[in-house]
Amino acid sequence: MRDQREIANIIANDFGANATYVEDLLRQFQYNPNSVGDEWGSYFHSLLGGNGAVKAEAQAVAAKAAPAAAPQMVAVQPAAKPAVAPAAETVGERLQIRGPAMKIVENMETSLSVPTATSLRQIQIKLLDENRRWVNRYLDEQGKGKTSYTHFIAWAILKALAKFPQMNDGYEEKDGVAYRLKRTDVNLGVAVDIQKKDGSRSLLVPNVKAADKMTFWQFVQAYQDVVIRARDGKLQVSDFQGTTISITNPGTIGTSSSSPRLMAGQGAIIATGAIEFPPEYAAMTDAALSQLGISKVFNITSTYDHRIIQGAESGMFLAYIHELMLGKHDFYDEIFADLGINYKPLRWSVDVNPMLSGVDRERQEIKKQAAIFEWINAYRVRGHLIADIDPLHMIHLYAHPELEIETYGLSIWDLDREFYTGGLGGKEYATLREIWAMLIRFYCGKVGTESRHITSREQKQWIRERIERNPEPIPVEVKKQLLDRLIAAEQFEKFLHTKYLGQKRFSVEGGESIIPVLDQLIAGTAQRGAEEIVLGMAHRGRLTVLANIIGHYMSERIFTSFEGTVHPNFPADEGDVKYHQGAVGKRDINGKELTLTLSPNPSHLEFVDPVVEGMARAKQDAMQIAREEARARVWPVLIHGDAAFAGQGIVTETLNLADLKGYRTGGTIHFIINNQIGFTTSPTSSRSSIYSTDIAKMTQLPIFHVNADDVEAAWRVLQIALDFRQKFNKDVVIDLIGFRRHGHNEGDEPSYTQPLMYQRVKEHPGVRELYSRQLIREGTLTREEVDQMIETVWRSYETALASAKEIVANKKPMTAPPEMKPDMDGSTVLETGVARDMLDEVSRTMSVVPQGFTINPKMVSQMSRRAKMGSGEIPVDWGFAEGLAFGSLILEGTSVRLSGQDCGRGTFSQRHAILYDTQTGDSWTPLETLQSNGVKFEVFDSSLSEAGVLGYEYGYSIVSRDGLTMWEAQFGDFANGAQVLIDQFISPSEDKWKQTSRLVMLLPHGYEGQGPEHSSARLERYLQLCAEDNMQVCYPTTPAQYFHLLRRQVKQELRKPLIVMTPKSLLRLPAAVSSLDQFSSGGFHPVIGDDVNPANVERVLVCSGKVYYDLLAEQDKNNSGKIAILRLEQFYPFPLSLLQRWLSSFSSAKQLFWVQEEPQNMGGWNFIRPWLEGLKRTGQELRYVGRVASASPATGSYMVHQLEQQALVKEALSL
Fold first, then answer.
1. How far is the C-alpha of 671 from the C-alpha of 685, rounded, in Å?
2. C-beta atoms surrounding 473 within 10 Å
3. Residue 306 a catalytic site member
4. Catalytic: which of 45, 306, 453, 744?
5. For the segment 816-839, what is each residue's pLDDT rounded down to a tens digit?
6. Distance between CA 1059 and CA 448 in Å, rounded?
7. pTM for this model (two decimals)
8. CB 383: neighbour CB atoms within 10 A?
9. Which portions of the chain are predicted below pLDDT 50?
10. Rg of the chain's alpha carbons, rounded to an integer?
11. Which residues contact 974 (CB under 8 A, 6 or more apart)?
12. By the 8 A CB rule, do 479 and 486 touch?
């Protein structure tokens, strides 16, 4: 058991300057062992001899303390004090120093045993002060508190120790040998002034362990932690052990300079003085100080152990700290980067003040004012580059010199000087500091705005005025709504993850903000007069949108699908996976009903974009009101992925339609769920642009990049976007930057390829949690209320799941695949003839030029020819037949819409649906004069786009269910550029989504020696897609057939897409004409027979399209009557009974030939062959006649083409 003096010596030896604090704790422990923490209890238990006992005199341990000494050091006795003559007694009372105060006396006396010296340096605080302001402003926005001057100075000490590590060394004597202790870590002692309950004060010096291994923010947190624990009395034994160097700040009490005592074992102690202006400037005003460029200063001292540190080393150490304080060695740059502050720190510079320049003062002032304007504009243009828009801080920052004040000759000395702003933020004049703060707030916060690429001054000014003002407070009710939808989105994803672990759902987690934003968009559009929103999106987040935006009943539908069956109200779900399905819902917004239509979409991401645009335009047209008003009532909304938006050309094609006459929808709200990754590919590998949205600038639309962690910022941007669309009828892009919580799907492991990103993702609490904390912090809600909201949402999903399980339980399980239905027989001929008087009216409309309109001279004969065809004087050609079909349908009340490249005139100058005045350039569309009662005839020359325009017309046809909607390819094979639309939408849409369409695709086809790309419309590809009566594929050979085919498409009950192989050379072939009476009666004939005597026929040729006329021309030279030619005008639905009837009439024919122009591996052969094999008689020869199989559709040599054509015709006709 140790005695009192031994215990005191041990404490002094272990804790040095902190011994007083430890002895206080010891007394608490002796009185009540439970009053200290476990670590202190263990220490004191060991200190007192292992059993907690102590001699009676130990009770007075605080009154007598041994001198402090460094661990493992030989104590150096202090020198004998010289005798002092007694002074006259002038004190009124003499108090004995005892207890903690006596311990301080002893510590100070012990410190005299260390030979020390002190270096002093004065440092300007201006740059530190300004950069600290920026740091604290940023931290305040993040809800992370503030930094002090001491944090920065201490950090500079740590940085300087890396340059001068000897300042961290220690001195030790052992067995009479002196040692320099080289420390591997910097354990920075922090002097903390503690006020006790009795009002007395004491100084504690705990340390931050391994401070040199930390980042700046880690160090600040660790520093604050020891300070808080010191003041709360929660320091542990280890907090005092191993201090290598200390910092103290007597400047907090006004001390301008200090030379503190150095405790044994430490190499140095750094003291900072008060921060203040030099005394000679103390009486000056702030304005005068600003004009003179006077900085506050502080003194910093380094008191060091002179046995191991020399004065030059200490001086250089302080000089390096001075350099760091002035921003050298990237001191502030590294701090800003560590904190995630996107803009550059301020720089130290020499003050150039025109007010003090004397000569040329006015010119210099003007120059500086002009620089201010230029700098302000730079933030408007490029501020987005340093905006805080990435929750993970993964986006590479493009710090631009145009955003730095130094570029414009401005400096930290100008910050408090006043300049003219031009009205920035509603202020005419402001200090540079205020101007900068406004620019950061407006352009570099949680929203980065790109609008200065817009050429319209009005639009730019409007956006600027909306951005450059203090935002109005968000109503409390809206805040609760935002949180409610965040909860709904988060809990829905968690619910699915819990109930259906591992199943694909393409979660929106990390981008949940899209759900409350969409919810607010619905309310906002309704307030602005909308009646319907048409939505398009890929699979990411689709289930959450269905469940929480379209309608609550959708949850039951989704859960039923996860349970392995189909909800009885949604039979279409059987046709495609759940995250491709669409829906229609209704929302009541303050008593007003708003319709929501979510278009289905395949995995081909962005290809739904033009489909949605077409649907919206059709809905607007159907309202039969002024187009501007209709656009205000129907809003298209597209939700994109970041990688797809930048990478898929269909996005560009769709954007390009936005302001074209035939495709305007009044503006689309584009959202990008930007999770900063495409499957496994990072942005640096998936695009060459800075943002995924850069392509959108081509259409002069504004772009808002929003940090998805700030749902309120997203709400404010949404209001701007809705108002902009309403005012200017233009698109807007909102780039919602978040992350993807899981892999591409829930079974994918993303950390294989993105380890750094997914480490940050794991550490991210989620936007719902962040917003909950914010609302709780500001008093909008309590934690209990938030928890209740979460529980309510979860219960609603449990209820929906129970209903889904009940549906599954009551549904008879499927035991076999559905039976295949036989294809319909396409032999029916529907009567589609038109009365002669109607044909006459259409004919007159097409051939009579209005008075005052000057047509092209070359069109005069064409108009005369139209009149003659309309009167029956000459046969009707293809162009006129088409016009008769269009005009008759309009008169019967059917709207007609045709679009495509050059379709107004026609690729082959055959249509001339639109004529142009040669004097004025004005257009005239003859058939428009037949319009009435909302029935329209519209022909639009499209952009040079296949996929975008075809997708648009497909979307239009979905809504315009009974109109005639057509898309014409310039050449048939150009449809290749839209193959995704054909394969994923047009062909399978009815099977997948129960989505029907009457869309007509006009594809010029025919072999005329024009080479591989202008010959084939790839008939074989469409035939390969034919099944389950999904569409019609026809190849008419006469104008009348084409006329009746177009009319049949509208008149028949079936709504199926129609693929038409249209003519090129036949447009002007004299033989390919029809008499006018063929339009007055009859209909489209799927098969056209031959009037040859059946008894003489030995060979039957079945063909389709242009080759018929080649065969006919050659046969007419020597027609023996032994060969019959049948024209198959419709491939699908296959006209089985009709063709069978014709073939059976030629009972003596021994040969059945299929003749085609296309190579054997193309065209109709592979489709028709099994049909013909089933139709031919026993013993009848079935033969293919046509070009040999080829990799290319056609030869590039006209001579070779001619030889091939002659050969196939000869083979077909040679008996």
1. 22
2. 9
3. yes
4. 306
5. 888 888 899 999 999 999 999 999
6. 47
7. 0.87
8. 27
9. 51-91
10. 43
11. 901, 946
12. no
